[in-house]
Amino acid sequence: MGVFDRLPPMDHLRSEKMCFVQLIMPAESARLAVTYLGELGLVQFKDLNEDKSPFQRIFVNQVKRCAEMTRKLRFFSDQINKAGVKSSVRPALQPDIDLEELEAKLGEHEHDLLEMNTNSEKLLQTYNELLEFKLVLSKAGGILASSHNHATPAEQELDEHIYNKEMDDGNAYLLEEGVHLGATDNSGVKFVSGIILKSKALAFERMLFRATRGNMFFNQAPAGEPVTDPISGEEVEKTVFVVFFSGDQAKAKILKICNSFGASCYPVPDEMVKQRQIFREVSARLSDLEVTLDAGIQHRNKALESVGSQLWRWTIMVKKEKAVYDTLNMLNFDVTKKCLVGEGWCPIFAISQIKDVLQRATLHSNSQVGIIFHEMDTIDSPPTYFRTDKFTNAFQEIVDAYGIARYEEANPAVYSVITFPFLFAVMFGDWGHGICLLLGAFVLILREKKLSSQKLGSFMEMAFGGRYVILLMALFSIYCGLIYNEFFSVPFHIFGKSAYECREKNCSDAHTAGLIKVRDPYPFGVDPSWRGSRSELPFLNSLKMKMSILMGVSQMNLGIVLSYFDAKFHGNALDIRYQFIPQMIFLNSLFGYLALLILIKWCSGSKADLYHVMIYMFLDPAGDLGENQLFWGQKELQILLLLMAIVAVPWMLFPKPFILKKLHKERFQGHTYRFLGTSEMDPDSEPDSARSRHDNFNFTEVFVHQMIHSIEFVLGAVSNTASYLRLWALSLAHSELSTVFYEKLLLLAWGYDSLVVKLVGFIVFAFATAFILLMMESLSAFLHALRLHWVEFMNKFYHGDGYKFKPFSFALLADDED
To answer: Residue 212: its pLDDT value, please?
Structure first.
């Protein structure tokens, strides 16, 4: 253990050291101090008013004002979007204004916009009504002219309504006679004209017929053009109608029905001369209204452009002010000393910056009393804070999705920067596909500034956020593809000639004739001659399966070693002696030995059956190995390793709970002796008393937890090692699927003489490669690599039950607005 003790504690791989601080700020400088701290973005405030509702806090009125300004800004944004006015995302620099001036300016702009909207709505409603009146005059005039000159259409219309023969013949005769007489007032026949939705016309006609008991004549004509409804503001198809009737009671009924159906009634004179005169007046008024509406829209758009040029700046300003007052509401207000007291967390490296900011706030606020800043002790666990950049942020997010690291716990993201894309590439290895991924990553990186300022979709946003992950996955895929010697499943003689040739010089079918070794091994990666040979699949299966086991055992050992550094860093000797050591012994006695056998077999060229060796290591440890013996003393070593693995299980299970119980009893007795001299003090009354400590320790719970942890590790050592075989399975599946697409799509189409068939085959091959291999297969490999890190690697040392450092920062507000 002396070697491990001399190793560094890996401080640079842990979260930033945090301290709990208290700030005592005079009332006159508190707002400016919090504003400057928001610009710095390195202090996480603690809510000291959790027992108070939002309406009981000190700065509730200021928060309400900011909320009201936010509502006005949302109103402006909606109006700008509705009008289709383009507003600049980053406006030109304007003179700074304070909150009171901004509030007054927003109120003026809102009042002006509301007034313009009201006037515009009134003018538009008047315009639509006049347009309907014009259509009614045009269509109803024709209907009235036909009623004067032709009785036949009216009689046909009456026949279509299928009047009841038992109704009053006198009324029917009166209506018919009135139509023949031209619907004049002398005849007693009157009419109502108007316009109604086309979809309601049939039901409207039926209702009129029933209400008047057939004593009416209904005529209609399509409006001929879509009309903007004055109520809903939507363009709809409408129908012009004219209803002829007799009697004041019938008129009242008809008007009520028109009102209930949403029909608009307009007076149309009976004389043609008056109709033409009114038609000209309505047309003139429509022309004037069009000019007025256009001028109003231009004026409104100019006002919206003026607001839109500063909308982003004002929104950020209001958000900052609201965030400042929300933070001030988290502080305690000392009425006697007229100061605000705040508590929170900050990184130790930021203490000097925070002090400078607070001193600057005191000077700028002209306060005669300085801000007091000092560190405090606390029993609360500090938050976890890792400083990341645009390259490492995506890897940290992958780890944080599993769980936030404990304070000063070893950060798996540091290792995942390399191991995650490499394990992905092991499953995705093809340097042709890797080049495609690399091009996609380069596009995202080169357009980084442009894409970061745009609002992207969910998939595109995820791809852009992980652009550097994709870059490393592409580079490692090219590397593994060169090792596998696959370019869209096709091998190439990149690094020299193959070590194998046909048995006969004139043979062309290596699959049937077989190969013989004629020169030194291929210098890098898999020999291209394995492609198409009889031993291709068995060779690649054996290679990738053994390689997967070696990688799995290596990464699991790395996880256990990291648990040692965690225990050493926190001074936990029990975890080192009774967790790290037995875990290393158990894992390497079985699967570390298997990895050793694989390496010896590769180096020696032995034909030993490793399955037989591992199975009979448990079933018959003292049996003769025979031809499966790889080195001298192998049987004795296997017996020793098996005994060590058996001993490691109770070593993990029993000592730690009993030692914890013993240590707890010793502490408890020491606290009890301290209370023997005083009879007045009750141990139960002290929160940190020996009695409370004794009650908090539950041996059964500790023992069960240790038993679960031990069983999980023993079973997990087997299942996790088997889980790494997914590297072999997915790599083989990717290679075979790529081979199928190449041979059955591209080569098959290339065998035809037709250019169209070749083109279609190439297009299908390209789409299959892009959507299945580059998208679906890459997503599958990504998820499997994610699982290997979360389950097989990180569970060896990573607790992930901390909470993230969330400082009060204006930069986060700007990012949210973007």
So the answer is: 86
